[in-house]
Design goal:
single chain; about 375 residues; alpha+beta; 8-stranded mixed β-sheet; globular
Length: about 375
């Protein structure tokens, strides 16, 4: 079976070298299936390639540049492997949170190891995203320790990505029994009382070290706090959190469009105009996303960010349909070696990753009613 070479449609300067692209392509299927060797290697490889520091200040150990560079880096990785990009996102989001925390000691203690890929970073904040939307209660509660000196945490995180052993740091939200606002905690993997489940049985993205966390009387102090008040911290980091997450959609849509284009030949194809329209809508949304994150527009106007996330979701679905239709019956063949089946499974994750499409639409409806 001859495999068509996939060329991406990337208007900005490439952040991946040819060797990077080859490395990711060679491991994309293994990462999707959860091959242990590839799973353990991907974040350290991204770190060695210098990809984790795009959009992070030089003074913090990054490569400098703009927030859009971080989004673009994740998108370009997702063009080749969404599993690698999803782990990349988890790592990069925690790096971003440390860059924005007021806890300088915590940042200095963990940021170098995260940038080097020596420790894994995970964002277990799906629960608080749903909590802030009024969809569910917080799953972890903090009880003040007798005599002061911190809190004891009890509860669970049912879904958390990039929990790579033997050392990880996970950002989690906790409710306080004393009625104070929720906190954001950076919890290290070696803390007594913290238990990581086996990797979750997923239909795709199995090489992302996605698991659950169980907490039983886990002791923390103020030294472990990313933010004592989640309500003040999360709106500031949400544009980066969601913007980088959008990199998954961008990369997957570009990959599907590239595959569709490779099958159409030279002009005149009945699907050429839909493909051109999809690519145009995609890159318009990408440009608006980067500009809005960099300008800080989405802190006070999150509905614009939500709308762009939904637009990118639509681009993924349209691009996958174009890839399917241009492949025809060949797409259903197990002998096909072009990554379509993997991308199709990956595309099913885009609508449900938190905040899900349903949650975003509900939020937009709520905001529209308030503005009416």
């Amino acid at each position: 079976m001859v495999t068509r070479k996939m060329t991406s449609h990337i208007p900005d300067f490439p952040l991946l070298t040819g060797a990077n692209r080859q490395w990711l392509d060679a491991r994309a299927q293994a990462l999707d299936a959860g091959n242990g060797e590839a799973t353990a290697a991907v974040v350290p490889y991204l770190a060695e390639a210098g990809l984790l520091g795009h959009g992070l200040a030089d003074a913090l150990g990054g490569q400098g540049g703009r927030a859009g560079d971080a989004i673009e880096a994740i998108a370009q990785v997702a063009t080749h492997s969404m599993s690698a990009a999803f782990a990349f996102w988890g790592q990069r989001v925690l790096i971003e949170m440390l860059a924005n925390t007021g806890n300088a000691a915590l940042r200095e203690r963990w940021l170098p190891a995260l940038l080097a890929g020596e420790a894994a970073g995970a964002s277990g904040l799906s629960n608080i995203m749903k909590f802030l939307s009024g969809l569910e209660a917080l799953n972890i509660r903090a009880t003040a320790r007798e005599g002061g000196g911190g809190w004891l945490l009890n509860g669970s995180v049912p879904w958390c990505t990039n929990l790579r052993g033997p050392r990880f740091l996970a950002a989690i939200a906790v409710a306080r029994d004393d009625g104070a606002p929720p906190m954001i905690v950076a919890l290290p993997s070696d803390r007594p009382g913290l238990e990581r489940s086996p990797d979750l049985e997923l239909i795709a993205l199995r090489g992302t070290n996605t698991a659950a966390l169980q907490l039983k009387d886990v002791a923390i102090t103020e030294d472990d706090l990313l933010a004592e008040r989640a309500g003040g911290f999360l709106p500031r980091v949400r544009p980066a959190f969601l913007g980088m997450q959008c990199g998954l959609s961008i990369g997957l849509a570009r990959a599907a469009c590239a595959q569709a284009a490779s099958r159409m030949g030279q002009g005149g194809h009945v699907l050429q105009q839909p493909l051109d329209d999809t690519r145009s809508h995609l890159e318009q949304a990408v440009a608006a996303l980067k500009a809005g994150v960099e300008a800080g527009d989405f802190v006070e106007a999150p509905e614009r960010l939500f709308a762009l996330r939904l637009a990118l979701h639509d681009c993924v679905q349209q691009a996958m349909q174009l890839e399917l239709q241009t492949a025809g019956g060949r797409a259903y063949s197990l002998d096909a070696d072009d990554g379509f089946a993997r991308r199709w499974r990956e595309s099913a994750f885009i609508p449900i990753v938190t905040p899900s499409v349903i949650q975003l639409r509900a939020e937009l409806q709520k905001l529209q009613k308030l503005g009416a």
